[in-house]
């Protein structure tokens, strides 16, 4: 039997936001290894393919296999409070074009794991400090450093997710040299935002409104900070529009040449307005990522796509699914199956080949009907529905042991 293990990470979500890389939990590679170990202990002759998945959140660069990488380097940057952090910059192996092989010297695609720089802390008090004092300037710094490595026809993909910082992205813009310098820099580059979180910056369900739930600040203080961040960010959007309107001569349209197919703005219905700034606002899809940096960067000329879909293309999910007999996905806590999330993307790819897809998760609160609509046959949770102790109330080794046992159970149930 041929089984594809394509799990995301198992991270707790105490406020509905995955704490990727923070606190207890397992990265996608460890999830895949544990499931494979348990499966092989019971069905050693089954052919297992391990393809850990990511969504652009912290650590996404780690799932990119060595044979897909031309080069990998570490860039040092500043975290929200000035602390030194490291992010990966990966240059991807070019894929053969549909009309033939690529020639040497053609454009490259790069992936910057920038989400690690502004990763959401597990401690609400630490998160509160980042809300009140944090800046996105470090993000602008590492983006500028990454762009300096790329060529004029290259595509730089920047992984971004939810953050406790909420400065509207002004720190990032300032680190890129201010509005005019940043606008000029991005006009000569193809910059894509790989969004692990589609939340808007402002609004009733925006990143600002959620600050009180992810940190130890009051709703009143969160509302005040949100109003300020949204106002400042929208000033940048308006000023960027004025620069476009006052530009002399024809605008240069950069060709999107990439290791990905259709990597440009038209590749996602969600990014339909990302070709310009006319419809950008604080309530636009995905603008809340990176403390609002997603809104400012899009005003400066960047485009955006759902992270799980971009990572699926980088990793070659659709090709790997073909010829399998079963697909196994995984996610930390499943309250719904997002179409553009890891489970939704894996389920859709399995369904396209009429393959059963099962999901492993820490906790599952999704009905069978919702799972079926997403191409998922069944879900297996580490936490029982009526259990009082949360699934992540154990150490790293205990979580690995439980996941390995579940891998054995799945093999007994599904292998034939």
Describe the structure.
The chain has 13 helices and eleven strands. By secondary structure, it is of the alpha/beta class. The strands form two sheets. It has a six-stranded mixed sheet. Strands 2-1-9-10-11 form a five-stranded parallel sheet. It is globular and about 65 Å long. Residues 98-104, 248-259 and 263-277 have low confidence and may be disordered. This is Glycerate kinase. Keywords: Kinase, Transferase. One of its GO terms (biological process) is organic acid phosphorylation. GO terms for molecular function: glycerate kinase activity.
The main β sheet shows up as: 6 strands, mixed
Shape: globular
DSSP helix count? 13
Could you tell me the radius of gyration in angstroms? 21 Å
- Low-confidence runs (pLDDT<50, min 5 residues)? 98-104, 248-259, 263-277
Percentage of residues assigned to helices: 25-40%
Report, as a whole number of angstroms, the end-to-end distance: 7 Å
Q: Strand content of the residues, in percent?
A: 15-25%
- Compute the average pLDDT: 89
H/E order of the elements?
EHEEEEHHEHHEHHHEHHEHEHEH
Q: How many beta-strand elements?
A: 11
Structural class: alpha/beta
- Which sequence of strands runs across the widest sheet? 3-4-5-6-7-8
